[in-house]
Amino acid sequence: MNIKNEISIVQKELTKYGLMTPGKGIDFPVGISIENMENDNGKMTKHIVAKWNEVVMDTFSYSTTGEKSYMYEDHMKVEELNKYFDGELFALGITQKAAWIKAGLEDKVAYLKAEPSGHPALFPVWLEGNKDYHNELKPIYKI
Fold first, then answer.
1. What CA–CA distance (Å, rounded) separates 129 from 102?
2. Band of the pLDDT at 36, cuts 50, 70, 90?
3. Inter-axis angle of helices 3-16 and 87-95, to 10 degrees?
4. Can you count the helices (H) and strands (E) in the chain?
């Protein structure tokens, strides 16, 4: 495995979805870095780390006040750079959530209220069916 080639694949995929713009400053939704971290065997090895802001329910506030509030939280996807690493597969785990990562706080909160267990990859489907979600929240599916 050629690490430079695999990292290049990750950068190209993230750039294609508007999640990264190498060479144009640091103002992009997803940042990647290479860091030395301990692997499953306790050995220090190189890992690729992707970071972005995720919107989550503030569980502490909810458990103490009973009111649901939402906040930004750093989210990371980490994988060891070893012979099993695949840049395209790593990037796919992020690009499937591209619309979610790029969306604003208001849209994300509306989705989380309508779909408390919804997956970020399904956000675009919900958004398409709820363009007027400010008036009425509709779930993606009925149980």
1. 18
2. very high
3. 20
4. 6, 3
Using CA atoms, how far apart are residues 57 and 116, in angstroms rounded to an integer? 9
The closest of 115, 116, 89, 111 to 100, measured between CA atoms, is 111
Tokens read off for 52: 């972005």
pLDDT computed for residue 116 by the predictor = 87
**pLDDT classification of 143: cutoffs 50, 70, 90:** very low
Q: Say how many residues make up the chain.
A: 143
Q: Are 81 and 4 in contact (CB under 8 A)?
A: no
Range from 36-50, 51-65, 124-138 carrying the lowest mean pLDDT = 124-138
What is the arrangement of strands in the sheet containing 70-80, beginning at the earlier edge strand?
31-38, 44-57, 70-80
30, 52 contact by CB (below 8 A): yes
Tokens of 69: 């509030």
